[in-house]
């Protein structure tokens, strides 16, 4: 369970606010759902064929402040902690301890949940009453309410509320401070953990602050639901200590830490109506037969000794530490089957193994333990919260088990890394990790809805000041992989590469499959990551630390550019103006040079300095461009008046050859006029030598996000004069907000990285801020192609030229195609030459030109056009038409008669051959004796042998005449003479 400290309140409230972190309904029967929507299954089942190739897809994220009453400000604290659902799976009910109410959501359409109002507990009892859990039974909602005046005087009640109209039908006193509730699959029993939790600020006699025992002791309330009406329901108390408060022998034998103060936490009921109960602070598990109310088994959850953890809060994600004999202190519990239970081992005051376990409930033995694998999942997906490294790491808290789509899953929630890990638990002794689901902050309630193939996750963290709002997220089982994660890290030496806070991107010159990313000050030292974008999801394959003189350098890298010359330019945003500097490194990340900004700039920066870097190269050398995030302030301590005008920020150019700086202005859009928003630049990328792309974004996230855009600006042809600040005209290229919203999650604030890869593909990334004031989710976006987004700026010209305006059929003339691109861009790519719709030549443009050989030209006047298909940074274009005249192809005809003498009327053999220049003629040939045709034949590519009958005597002059065709010119052979005798 999590305990979120709030400002000091009266004693009763000081107690109840600690009930905010309440576990989710778990087990085979989560509330009445499993029985109502899908029959519970007792035996472990293998995954069905239907589940093959399926995953859970996030369909919606609903911020519950949208469901506040009309008279309550949207900025009011409100959470969604524990939830259950109606029998038809369409009305979700959640607890809101901060708002002292329960809320209702219509989830009929899982892609568009709708707020269905709330019920204030202040109207049912006292203004300090807070719900700790809910469960649905038939047409009723069972609301577990903490009404305690103090830790020493705990109390609570169970309100029975009609689901249809939110009317309370009955209240049942619970005689103590309640925590979780579960309903048996047959709806015979409701079991409620009465925790009577400890005061973390109280030191018992002779013990440390927050230690046990702190009486009164907790127990379990079991409500018999056998009656048809709630008026007939009866509550039965099951004590976990003797009547005189002494420890039960079974608790002592199980080595429960403090058996006189059990502190029951979480309940789950299996199909045989056996109750499993965690004693979190006491590191114990209890099994109770609800029919007889007998305690059947008590055992310790034990301890974990394992390696592969990060246990130091030092800005380094290094899975090289060990846990030694750390008690599990389980929070949530769920039945895997009728003999095995699983626990989320969040820990509390003395432990927390950072994983989850499966126990044999008959003997208390551990059949499986996650070890460090749960923490490695967080690291691999960029969700590891290093601020919690010295405590309980990702802190698994919630757990739920259900069969969805034919497969039995365990859903394990990470309170501090904001995700739910999904495991195939068909084999209780060998869970298999299948998927990670991103959630908003503090995922508390984990509710499978098997009958609709849904999962609902509700979150307990709500901070309106930073717009980190509690929500209910919905996921639906469907075909194919989910879009999350969009980027992960590879394993090196058995451990995933640690990464977080990707705030800058750069292409790798000449390598379309690789880009670079960099982390900001969240990680130490500064890190440069190699990213394989050919993979889906993209994969971080290497982490390169930035060093100086062999020592790692702590940096706030907000911009990175991979130089064609080798190495990198890095933009470091300083805590003060003077800390904003550029670093040039070699390929190994070692700093070779540091470039400072002019004092005329740094003296007007307090924070929000450098936020991007890029470079171009031309005949004058290398030019480095940087973007400042926000305006220059006249007085950095006041930040009221600006140097350059309202919402004008600066883009700078550093010329490496003479070390000079030149500055340009950029006009930002107006922020939202509520005082909580600002707009600034977050990245700069060269599109060509005189066009820059910048990310402009607001400070807002979630439903309030408005401005997440990429604009382009064209640089002037001449440098600004001293004292001038030309404000560049900007043009919208990409509105990234739809892509961010398409994830169906919490819209991320910090769109901070953008690059154009070597093949012209566009990539962007959000900075997860190391999970500080953010959900921790990283969106790695694929935004199409540069030639589509920046087509106007990159547009080139294609020209076609001929060596001669005419040719003959059968010839293969060569033409020249030249493609000019934007400034600094050398076009490449395929080109096609067409005569109308007929392709007569293909080639490839390299270094801006292509020599293309034409073939298959028709006879006549041709109109040729060269069509350039486009390249990485040059859009497709076509040349102006060019005329080419194609004459008929030249031919040659040859006649050969076999005999030189023959009798009149006899036949002689003759061979006729017609050839063309560059082609094979076809058509009719006449053999003539003088002007008399003595034989007609056709030819088509081969020598024809024919018999010719000679009827005239004397010396005959025979010749072959090819009459020509549509593509071939006529020709006549030489005379071949034959003497014809009588």
From TrEMBL:
Residues 801-887, 897-980 form the Bacterial Ig-like domain. One of its GO terms (biological process) is carbohydrate metabolic process. InterPro entries: Big_3_5, Choice_anch_I, Ig-like_fold, Mesenchyme-surface_protein, Phytase-like_dom, Quino_amine_DH_bsu, TAT_signal. Keywords: Signal. Residues 498-769 form the Phytase-like domain. The keyword tRNA-binding does not apply. The keyword Signal applies. Residues 1-45 form the signal peptide. Gene3D superfamilies: Immunoglobulins (2.60.40.10). Residues 352-434 form the Choice-of-anchor I domain. This is Alkaline phosphatase. It comes from Aeromicrobium fastidiosum.
